[in-house]
Write a structure and sequence with these properties.
Elements (H helix, E strand, L loop, with lengths): L6 H13 L12 E5 L12 E4 L9 E5 L6 H17 L5 H17 L23 E5 L6 E5 H6 L14 E2 L5
Helix pairs in contact: 1-2, 2-3
Length: 177
């Protein structure tokens, strides 16, 4: 089995193998790049894979990005083959093609070493450092009015109930991380 020690090398090998002599009837453009990167938030956060057309790339390449939150070799290979088929044919794969392409991805995975990547835990923060931007819940003890405030502002001053100042200072939920 071939020694591949980087994610990009594995993705490139996978892309080359899944498209070699494949059944979709169109070739993948040669100017296709593949790498790891987060999908665009506005177009489907949570996606496994996303691509951009050459007009969107300063280098004039097709750009394919695989989410760093996915580490399963077969899941990545399936996403790569489906996205490559979509780029090559300018349409989504048909139901029959999906099954054929999925089987092709499985066979390619058997020829490759495991995907050299550990899934990134989204929302995780560095050890010992609290997530500064996360909102902390504060509640008025009188009327139960609730709002969120960042740690930074909470350290500066705990807010007074905005509904009725006579209720006094709100209480922070200290059970939150």
């Amino acid at each position: 089995m071939q020694h591949i020690n980087t994610r990009e090398a594995w993705l490139r090998a996978c892309l080359t193998r899944v498209t070699a002599g494949w059944p979709v009837g169109s070739d993948l453009p040669e100017n296709t790049h593949i790498s790891v990167g987060f999908p665009h938030k506005g177009r489907g956060a949570g996606r496994v894979i996303e691509s951009y057309e050459p007009a969107q790339s300063e280098g004039g390449h097709w750009e394919i990005f695989v989410s760093p939150t996915v580490a399963d070799s077969l899941e990545v290979a399936r996403a790569v083959v489906m996205e490559a088929a979509r780029i090559a044919t300018h349409r989504a794969p048909t139901a029959g093609e999906i099954e054929t392409l999925g089987e092709r991805a499985r066979r390619v995975c058997e020829t490759l070493p495991p995907y050299p990547h550990s899934a990134l835990k989204v929302g995780a923060h560095a050890p010992g450092k609290p997530p500064e931007a996360r909102l902390i819940k504060v509640t008025c003890p009188e009327c139960r009015y609730t709002m969120g405030i960042t740690r930074k502002w909470l350290r500066i001053k705990v807010p007074v109930c905005p509904f009725d100042a006579a209720h006094g200072i709100m209480r922070a939920d200290t059970a939150q991380p």
